[in-house]
Amino acid sequence: MIHLTRSGPDGDTTRGVLTVDEVPQLRLVTLEPNPPVIPLGEFSAIRYQSPEFGRDVVRLVDVPGHSGLEVHSGNTRTDTRGCVIVGERVATPADGFTVPAVVSSRDALAQLMELLPGDRWTFSVEGYGA
């Protein structure tokens, strides 16, 4: 199971942490819009070759009222497109961002997709949100 645990809002973004039961050493930071598009609960997720990003991503397939929601790479809220972006750490002012951001996102996504077992999972969303 993939777990997204939201810690709360940071301006117009929502911060959190993504973990995977089968990969205890994996802990990635996340960024979503605030308010989040994905409600709290459990959803089905699949490995998906994203035509937009040209690589495998996690795609949520049963979020009520939404389609095409993914866990993908990016840095700031404008990159989320309502989805979840992952990073290796939260950006600091030294990284050159003036808004909430995550960094090393492509590396984090590659690590996630490499370590995730199989092609189908349960995706759990907990913590802050509707």
Question: How would you concisely characterize the structure shown here?
Answer:
With 130 residues, this protein is mainly beta. It contains 2 helices and 10 strands, in the order E-E-E-E-E-E-H-E-E-E-H-E.
Averaged pLDDT, please?
95
How much of the sequence lies in strands comes to: over 45%
Largest sheet: 8 strands, mixed, barrel
Q: What sort of overall outline do the alpha carbons produce when their principal axes are compared?
A: globular
Number of H- or I-type helical stretches: 2
What structural class should be given to the helix and strand makeup? mainly beta
Low-confidence runs of at least 5 consecutive residues: none
Strand order of the largest sheet: 1-2-3-7-6-5-4-10
Q: How many domain modules?
A: 1
Secondary-structure element order, as H and E? EEEEEEHEEEHE
By DSSP, the count of extended strands is: 10
Helical proportion? 10-25%
Kindly, what is the distance between the CA atoms of the first and last residues, rounded to a whole number of angstroms? 21 Å
The radius of gyration over CA amounts to 13 Å
Protein traits:
8-stranded mixed barrel; two-stranded antiparallel sheet; 10 strands; mainly beta; 130 residues; single chain
Please write out the topology.
Blueprint: E1 2-10, E2 13-20, E3 23-33, E4 41-50, E5 55-60, E6 69-72, H1 77-80, E7 84-87, E8 89-90, E9 102-103, H2 105-115, E10 120-127
Structural commentary:
The chain is mainly beta and 130 residues long. Helix 1 links the parallel strand 6 (69-72) and strand 7 (84-87). The model has no long low-confidence stretch (mean pLDDT 95). It has one domain (2-127). The strands form two sheets. It has an eight-stranded mixed β-barrel. A two-stranded antiparallel sheet has the order 8-9. 12% of the residues lie in helices and 49% in strands. The two termini are 21 Å apart.
